[in-house]
Design a protein that fits this description.
By secondary structure, the protein is an alpha/beta fold. The protein has a single domain, classed as Aldolase class I (TIM Barrel, Alpha-Beta Barrel). Helix content is 44%, strand content 13%. The strands form 3 sheets. Strands 4-11-10-9-8-7-6-5 form an 8-stranded parallel sheet. Helix 4 (87-98) runs parallel beside helix 5 and helix 12 (255-263) crosses helix 13. The two termini are 34 Å apart.
Length: 377
Amino acid sequence: MIASVDAFRAAAQAYLPRMIFDFVDGGSERETTLRANCADFESLRFAPRVLTNVANVELATTLLGEQIAMPLVIAPMGLCGVVRPEGELALARAAKAAGIPCVLSTAATHPLEAVAAAAPENLWFQLYIFRDRELMRSLVGRAREAGYRALVVTVDLTRGGKREKDIRNGFTVPPRFNRRTAVDLLRHPRWLWRMLPHRNMTIGNLVGWGGHSSDVVALSTFMNTQIDPSIHWDDLTWLRQEWDLPLVVKGILHPDDARQAVACGVDAIIVSNHGGRQLDGAPSTISVLAEVVDAVAGAAEVILDGGIRRGGDVLKALALGARACMIGKAALYGLAADGQPGVERVLAILRQELDIAMALSGNSRASAVRPDTVRRI
C-alpha cells in the first residue's frame, strides 16, 4: 500500500506522460519558489511538550463558519480532466467523503453544476477577475444557484507565469507534439487508453461564452484574452457587493495586501504563490504566513496554500496561525495514481500524519494548536 504523498507522487509520475506530469508537478522558470514551498518547512522544528493528555486528539475544526473534519481544503486546479477523465468530480467526491471543502476552478473540465450534483455541500467556487464583468456575474450567479458555500477570488494571475517545462513539452493550447512527446504518450498506454474516449474534453464552465461551443482550444484562448491585468482593489469591493456568502481572496503574500483585503470585506485570505507557477523568486508561503496572520489580527481567517506534503506540515502552519491548509499537487498525485480512491488515500494519509504529529507534540485540538509548537532553526 502507498504510505506517503511522496510515494503517490512517484506513482503519478509512472502513470502520466511526461507532459502531463510536468504540467501537474512543475513551476515557473527555475522553480525556486516551487522548491521553497516544500523546503522551507524544514527550517521549522517542533518543540514538543509532554504529559499533556493527548488520549483524544480532535482534528475537527471550523472554517468560514462550517464544521470540517480536519483543517484541509482541496485547492482549485484547472483542467484536472487531463489527469483522469473524472477529474474534478473525483476530487469533490473524495473531499466530501473526508468531510472537507473542495474548491472548483473556473477552468475546470467539468461544469460547476455537474460537480455540485456529484458532491453537494461544502463546495467553494474559484473565480478570476475577467475583463467581461457579465461573464463574472454569470459565474457568480451559477455558483450561488448550485449551492456553492464560498467564492474564492484569485488575484495573482494578471499574466501567466513562464512555465518552461510546459513550453519544452509542448503543453500549450493547442498542444505541440513532436517525436519525443508522441513516443512518451505511447509509453503510457494505461493513461492513453483511459483518455482516448474523452479526447474532446472542454472547459465546462465557459462553454457557450465568447461565441465558442465546447472546443477546448478556442475556450482556452478566450479565457486567456479575458485575464485582466488592470485589476484593482475596487474589483474586490465590487465582488463583495455581488456575493453575499463568504468571500475569500487567494494569492496574498504581503501583509499590507492582507490588510487591504480585510478592508474590502473579505472573510478569509489564502496565503498563496499559485503553487510556484507564477512569479519565480516569490517567497514560499510558509515563510510569510506569520506576517499575514499578524497583519489581519483576527479580522479574517487565514489559509495556507503551497508545499503541504505531510501532516506535520499542516501542524506547523496551524502553529503559525493558519486556520487550515490547502492541497493541490498532493491531491492530483492521488488522482493520477488511483482516481477517487487515490485522492481519498492521500487525505487519509495526511489525516493520520496530522493526528500523530499533534499527539507527539502535545496538542489535542486542531482548532487550538499552541504557537510554541514550532521554532525556527
